[in-house]
Design a protein that fits this description.
By secondary structure, this protein is of the alpha/beta class. It has a single domain (2-130, 162-219), classed as Spore Coat Polysaccharide Biosynthesis Protein SpsA, Chain A (Alpha-Beta Complex). Helices cover 28% and strands 21% of the residues. It has helices at 15-22, 40-43, 68-78, 97-107, 132-138, 172-177, 190-198, 227-236; strands at 2-7, 30-35, 53-56, 83-88, 91-93, 112-118, 129-130, 161-162, 167-171, 205-214. The strands form two sheets. The protein has an eight-stranded mixed sheet with strand order 3-2-1-4-9-6-10-5. A two-stranded antiparallel ribbon has the order 7-8. α2 (40-43) links the parallel β2 (30-35) and β3 (53-56). The protein is globular and about 50 Å long.
């Protein structure tokens, strides 16, 4: 059973959100929880209103920038199910996503997980990556200029990784115990802060057998981290 939590913003068109929900199979073991915007008027026309979809209104004027940390914590607090997807409103789920993640849940113990995340152009997004702030700390000359942080899906270096805030999966109790920092707004590296806080007491997991795709074009498509940079980080963090 999965809660798919989606954050949106009332100032944007709902076309991406509607397309996203269209890729989620309507079934008894899934709920869609939308925070922000006013999506029900559009989505109700597509017969999504009811137990499958719930909406939480949100006052966008409370902060000068989008209060995404508050929205995501509201997803945690209101989710019905123990496994929660946290997503921005511009993804498309692959046709096998729900079945693949159900199998993953049944076989892989996790607190926090992700899957393959693809750009609209078909390249890898920030799905399984090294924390760039740790890379820049070790190599100050790369600060703000080197974003090559991809890792192969089959390796796990949680102590130097971060989970991208635009899409991840987590257990509800873990998120209740480790909420996002609501003093941080959009653009404040809230995902880096959260990842750095939790990675000492959990192990990130990746379901490499399914994916989501970003609808917006031109999103970040990092390259694989340089072997010499990774070797230095592994030595520094005893990996």
């Amino acid at each position: 059973m999965i809660t798919i939590g989606i954050i949106t913003n009332s100032i944007f068109d709902n076309a991406h959100l509607n397309a996203m929900v269209d890729t989620i199979e309507c079934r008894d073991d899934v709920e869609v929880l939308i925070v922000g915007g006013d999506p029900l008027s559009d989505l109700a026309q597509q017969a999504y209103e009811g137990t499958f979809l719930r909406h939480i209104s949100f006052d966008e004027t409370q902060t000068p920038k989008a209060w995404i940390t508050r929205k995501k914590n509201l997803i945690t607090q209101n989710a019905t199910y123990d496994t929660i997807v946290y997503a921005h409103d511009y993804f498309l789920f692959s046709s096998n996503w729900l079945d693949s993640f159900k199998s993953f849940i049944d076989t892989v113990p996790f607190d926090v997980a992700t899957c393959r995340i693809l750009t609209a152009e078909g390249k890898r997004h920030s799905d399984w990556v090294v924390d760039p702030f740790l890379l820049w700390k070790e190599f100050p000359e790369l600060n703000g200029t080197c974003w090559n942080v991809l890792l192969p899906y089959h390796v796990n270096y949680t102590p130097i990784q971060y989970i991208s805030g635009n899409f991840w999966v987590a257990k509800k109790q873990f998120m209740l115990d480790n909420p996002l920092d609501e003093s941080l707004l959009w653009g404040d590296a809230e995902d880096i802060e959260w990842s750095s806080r939790i990675r000492s007491h959990t192990t990130f997991q990746c379901n490499m057998f399914t994916d989501v795709t970003i609808q917006k074009t031109g999103k970040w498509a990092p390259e694989t981290i340089a072997p010499e940079h990774l070797a230095t980080l592994k030595l520094r963090y005893n990996l």
